[in-house]
């Protein structure tokens, strides 16, 4: 894969004549990778061609309109929440000086560590009738049953929107903040000196420049929302994903389910295309002068407090409350949970997520860099194709992964049986390889997207300079781009790592025998209405998510001082 | 270079769990949580020395089995519902087992005629009523649930859940589609809130005063009584065995089937036999308050206190066959909204 290029051990081809056109090998590498990564998605499309029964008349007549509307409502709500929280807080911690700013800089990311299905469970246990909140209210006002008062229903579309928004806004925050940090402060100063207020500068200069990054963040949020099953299932919110599972599990029509998945895919493709189309004529390269540090606003005390509150609310709701609740349960069931199985699951989770993060990063770099070298229509198509896995529900993707892997295994097995009379059995399916493959397919969009948007900000004159000084594209990548992108690369890898730690549906279907990750372990209890019994592993998923978050923040902060 | 090495090492390591398939083992794909199977499988290993390996998932195991084909490592599939296990038969993924022990331990109505699946436990779909707000005997049948007098007083989980689908399928088998649809509309009209949560949540909702009547599986109630935190909610409800006086109460099964490709057939059949015998049946009964499939084993003390059960004699096969009709009916009635 990318290693060939990374090590830069190509023969020093004496081509100082600067062939404008870089060699084809990057293009070929990208095409190969895309072909492999697109296999699961293509398998699902193939399934969609052969449904057991045409499900659309029934769906159109009954539930489909509602599935669609609910899905759109959920996505719109989550977009508003994540953009609101993400942009406001990213701006505050980057540009304003207030007490606790340094703390919030990384603390804003904490909710990212909480899986949506966990936060949904926690809030349900807190806010439902038997939970402490309503109990206190009843005692206070002397109510005796649920019929005596009105209380907002957490298990609703609104509840799901809030839950998902609370744990996904860090995508927007992270990418927006990185973009704000990378912007040259002089742009801001120029705008101010030309008479724009801070607010108007924010909307007219800062946001437009940060838009590619914010768009990546938001599209990640929307795809995750579209694919969320745990929360919507638990809250009985009828989205397309719910309809898909219904068609698959209850009607036993996998082909029909694949058709719905394909429809959802089309949804995402349209979304992403629209966004790209809307900024088709923009091209911006910011050569930031690092000697020019960001000058943060000094503000009056009440304004500083507003910043503190704005930053604190999402952290408290999205992290502190769930973590404390899980912590309380974990203590209560500590002896039951603290055992060898728990350690084994922790190691499994760390190992799988680490491997997947590394693979995904390498593949992502290869793709994004190929795109930079060959900015052709074909390359764009490859890039989009390779990201499709993210737009597919995990369980469906898992079936898409099984089809080519088991197909390959069985093909090889028959071949070996025919010619050598030995059975090789299943080499790839049902192993950790299948899981790493699934994670890579699923989360490649995260790494390739972030690397691509960061690469876009490096002015091509860098490449030209490097190439004219005799470096090959690979050397240029290794010596110029990768060092410059260190912060982004680490961020991308860690985001994927945390995502893999939380991944559930594909993990469940693909895993080998007797193999649990923290997420699957939590799920088997949570799905049996017993999450308290697995609060400890749930807490560990959350805590493990925090470590990369801290590293991530440090690296972003320090990258400012020494790139 | 270092990255390359790390990646290679990672790839090599990632293939390792494959080594888990030695001889003298049974490999299980389970729709049932692994922790619920653990006591049973531990007892089996202790008795026979045969190791067991489990993958648990709620979805997709049938697809995995089908795609893995003749090389699939799975020997047994264990499910919690009749339609899931019937699906395996329909897709030709399981094989017939002709075995005296199993035939002796499991009554004929609780196994496939050719031995393509065997029930290991049964669970009854009960009606729960508020002790405070509903008189004893005020509701006695599933049909009563559609009576307008329960308007705004009933709670259930999603109509699409396999347990409700099986109940609706059995109604279709008894009354036909038209009558059943009418009934289901009636039940929907009586709902106090949008269907949500699991069976335990419906019992809790009665305790909370949200509704007065709920539907749920028997063992959820049993397990709630055994849990200190949930006992108060369970104690607020009375349980009703619906249709005990006529055709009998609707039951569902948890069961197991031998896969077509099973590489460890002998061991797998040993496990099936073990699961049907008294020791394992006892564990099922005690640990999860289900009804043992083996008539020689008595239900646990708690369950016995509820009284004799008169199960509906409708064949499980027929219930499974009505599944699709039931699912579509739930959509037409718009039950979940």
From TrEMBL, chain A:
Annotated protein name in UniProt: Iron ABC transporter permease
Membrane topology classification: Multi-pass membrane protein
Organism ancestry: Bacteria, Pseudomonadati, Pseudomonadota, Gammaproteobacteria, Pseudomonadales
Family: Belongs to the binding-protein-dependent transport system permease family.
GO cellular component: plasma membrane
Organism: Marinobacter profundi
Keywords, comma-separated and alphabetical: Cell membrane, Membrane, Transmembrane, Transmembrane helix, Transport
Record-annotated ABC transmembrane type-1 domain positions: 68-276, 346-552
Transmembrane segments: 26-47, 67-91, 103-123, 160-180, 201-223, 254-274, 305-330, 350-369, 381-406, 426-445, 489-511, 531-551
InterPro entries recorded: MetI-like, MetI-like_sf
Main location: membrane
Gene Ontology BP terms: transmembrane transport
Keyword S-adenosyl-L-methionine: no
Annotated SUPFAM superfamilies: MetI-like
Localization per record: Cell membrane
Protein's UniProt keywords contain Transport: yes
Pfam families linked to this entry: BPD_transp_1
UniProtKB/TrEMBL annotation, chain B:
Signal among keywords: yes
InterPro entries given in the database record: Ferric-bd
Gene Ontology cellular component terms for the protein in this record: outer membrane-bounded periplasmic space
Keywords, alphabetical: Iron, Metal-binding, Signal
Family indicated by similarity: Belongs to the bacterial solute-binding protein 1 family.
GO molecular function terms attached to this record: metal ion binding
Protein name (record): Iron ABC transporter substrate-binding protein
Signal sequence extent: 1-22
Positions bound to Fe cation: 219-220
UniProt keyword Iron-sulfur present: no
Domain of life: Bacteria
């Amino acid at each position: 894969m990318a290693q060939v290029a990374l090590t830069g051990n190509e023969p020093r081809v004496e081509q100082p004549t600067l062939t404008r056109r870089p060699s084809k090998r990057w293009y070929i590498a990208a095409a190969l990778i895309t072909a492999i990564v697109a296999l699961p998605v293509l398998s699902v499309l193939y399934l969609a061609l052969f449904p057991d029964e045409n499900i659309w008349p029934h769906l159109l007549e009954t539930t489909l309109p509602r599935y669609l509307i609910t899905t759109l409502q959920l996505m719109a709500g989550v977009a508003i929440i994540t953009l609101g929280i993400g942009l406001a807080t990213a701006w505050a911690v980057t540009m304003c000086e207030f007490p606790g700013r340094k703390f919030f800089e990384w603390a804003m990311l904490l909710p990212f560590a909480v899986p949506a299905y966990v936060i949904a469970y926690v809030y349900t246990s807190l806010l439902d009738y038997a939970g402490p909140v309503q109990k206190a209210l009843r005692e206070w006002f002397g109510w005796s049953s649920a019929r005596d008062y009105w209380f907002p229903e957490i298990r609703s579309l609104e509840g799901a929107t809030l839950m998902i928004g609370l744990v996904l806004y860090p995508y927007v925050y992270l990418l927006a903040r990185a973009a704000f940090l990378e912007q040259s402060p002089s742009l801001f100063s120029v705008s101010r000196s030309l008479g724009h207020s801070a607010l108007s500068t924010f909307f007219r200069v800062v946001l437009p420049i940060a838009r590619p990054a914010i768009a990546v963040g938001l599209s990640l949020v929307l795809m995750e929302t579209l694919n969320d099953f745990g929360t919507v299932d638990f809250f009985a919110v009828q989205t397309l994903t719910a309809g898909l599972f219904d068609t698959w599990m209850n009607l036993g029509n996998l082909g029909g389910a694949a058709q719905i998945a394909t429809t959802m895919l089309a949804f995402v493709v349209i979304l992403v295309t629209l966004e790209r189309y809307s900024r088709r004529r923009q091209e911006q390269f910011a050569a930031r002068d690092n000697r020019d540090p960001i000058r943060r606003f000094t503000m009056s005390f009440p304004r500083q407090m507003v910043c503190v509150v704005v930053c604190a609310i999402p952290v408290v709701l999205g992290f502190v409350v769930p973590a404390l609740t899980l912590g309380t349960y974990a203590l209560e069931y500590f002896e039951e949970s603290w055992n060898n199985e728990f350690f084994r699951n922790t190691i499994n989770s760390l190992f799988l997520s680490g491997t997947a993060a590394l693979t995904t990063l390498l593949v992502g770099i290869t793709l994004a860099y190929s795109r930079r070298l060959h900015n052709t229509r074909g390359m764009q198509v490859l890039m989009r194709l390779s990201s499709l896995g993210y737009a597919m529900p995990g369980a469906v993707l898992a079936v898409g992964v099984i089809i080519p892997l088991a197909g390959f295994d069985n093909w090889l097995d028959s071949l070996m049986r025919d010619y050598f009379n030995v059975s090789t059995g299943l080499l790839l399916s049902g192993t950790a390889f299948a899981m790493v493959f699934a994670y890579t397919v699923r989360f490649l969009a995260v790494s390739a997207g972030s690397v691509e948007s960061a690469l876009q900000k490096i002015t091509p004159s860098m490449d030209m300079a490097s190439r004219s000084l005799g470096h090959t594209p690979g050397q240029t990548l290794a010596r110029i781009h990768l060092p410059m992108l260190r912060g982004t690369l680490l961020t991308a890898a860690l985001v994927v790592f945390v995502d893999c730690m939380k991944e559930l549906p594909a993990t469940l279907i693909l895993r080998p025998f007797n193999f649990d990750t923290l997420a699957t372990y939590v799920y088997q209890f949570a799905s049996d209405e017993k999450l308290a019994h697995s609060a400890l592993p749930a807490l560990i998923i959350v805590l493990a998510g925090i470590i990369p978050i801290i590293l991530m923040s440090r690296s972003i902060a320090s990258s400012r001082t020494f790139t | 270079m270092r990255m390359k090495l790390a990646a290679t090492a990672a790839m090599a390591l990632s293939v390792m769990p494959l080594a888990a398939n030695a001889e003298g083992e049974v490999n299980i794909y389970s729709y049932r949580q692994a922790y619920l199977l653990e006591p049973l499988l531990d007892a089996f290993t202790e008795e026979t020395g045969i190791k067991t390996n489990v993958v648990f998932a709620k979805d997709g195991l049938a697809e995995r089995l089908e795609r893995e084909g003749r090389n699939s490592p799975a020997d047994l599939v264990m499910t919690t519902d009749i339609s899931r296990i019937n699906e395996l038969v329909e897709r030709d993924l399981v094989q017939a087992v002709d075995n005296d022990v199993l035939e002796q331990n499991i009554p004929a109505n609780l196994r496939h005629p050719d031995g393509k699946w065997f029930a290991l436990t049964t669970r009854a779909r009960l009606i729960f009523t508020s002790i405070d707000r509903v008189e004893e005997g005020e509701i006695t049948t599933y049909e009563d649930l559609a009576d307008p007098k329960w308007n705004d007083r009933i709670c259930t989980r999603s109509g699409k859940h396999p347990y409700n689908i099986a109940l609706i399928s059995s109604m279709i088998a008894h009354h036909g589609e038209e009558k059943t649809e009418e009934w289901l509309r009636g039940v929907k009209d009586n709902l106090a809130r949008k269907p949500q949560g699991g069976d335990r949540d419906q019992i809790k909702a009665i305790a909370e005063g949200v509704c007065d009547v709920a539907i749920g599986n028997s063992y959820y109630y049993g397990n709630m009584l055994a849990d200190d935190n949930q006992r108060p909610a369970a104690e607020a409800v009375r349980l009703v065995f619906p249709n005990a006086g006529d055709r009998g109460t609707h039951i569902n099964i948890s069961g197991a089937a031998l896969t077509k490709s099973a590489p460890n057939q002998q061991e797998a059949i040993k496990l099936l036999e073990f699961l049907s015998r008294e020791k394992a049946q006892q564990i099922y009964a005690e640990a999860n308050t289900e009804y043992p499939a083996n008539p020689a084993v008595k239900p646990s003390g708690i369950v016995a206190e509820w009284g004799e059960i008169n199960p509906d004699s409708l064949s499980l096969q027929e219930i499974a066959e009505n599944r699709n009709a039931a699912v579509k009916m739930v959509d037409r009635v718009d039950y979940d909204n």
